[in-house]
Amino acid sequence: GTLKATKNISNHIKNCSALLFGCGIGQSKDTLKILKTILQNSTVPTVIDADGINLLSQNTDILKTCKAPIILTPHPREMARLCGCSVAEIEANRIEKSKAFSKEYNCIVILKGANTIVAQPDGKIAFNRNGNPGMATGGSGDVLSGILVSILAQGLSPEDAAYAAVFLHGMAGDKATAQKGQRAMLPSDIIENL
Q1: I need a labelling partner for 29 at 20 to 30 A (CA). Which of 44, 177, 190, 192 fits?
Q2: b/e per residue 25-56 (b: at least 16 CB within 10 A)
Q3: What is the mean pLDDT of residues 103-116?
Q4: What is the pTM of this model?
């Protein structure tokens, strides 16, 4: 059951150099327990995306207990869930909302969208200017998270990994668009252009 799985996760975390949680995991009481186990036990850079963010929105205060660097990669709707507000409020205040959440919860926030924002807990904000609307499709964010965790696993700092991942993701998306067009592009096309 879940108890055995969480014990195994705690043991396996010790062998990791970076973690990614959330892509395609689903949302249940069991996956919430697994997320809590990861956040309480991880000592390596940990990326939370997709369903991981949706689960986290049920109790954001768990972030305050983390020992590891945490990077969240929400799109605007996921960010709205984390902040307990509307998507319109997020879109109207992307910088302020990202910056405030990053500072309060001591995590890096990569708020996806046009000019993706990378917010650091120390108040630094960066914008990624490449990428295109064709990347706003299911699975594209999973590609970004995969790029990010692979860069982290190679030893780059969480701050530099966040900047590099959003740039590489956008660059690959722009190359894919040049080949396929924005309407026909798939996440696999982004991967092929890395």
Answers
A1: 44
A2: beeeeebbbbbbbbbebbebbbbbbbbbbbbb
A3: 97
A4: 0.96
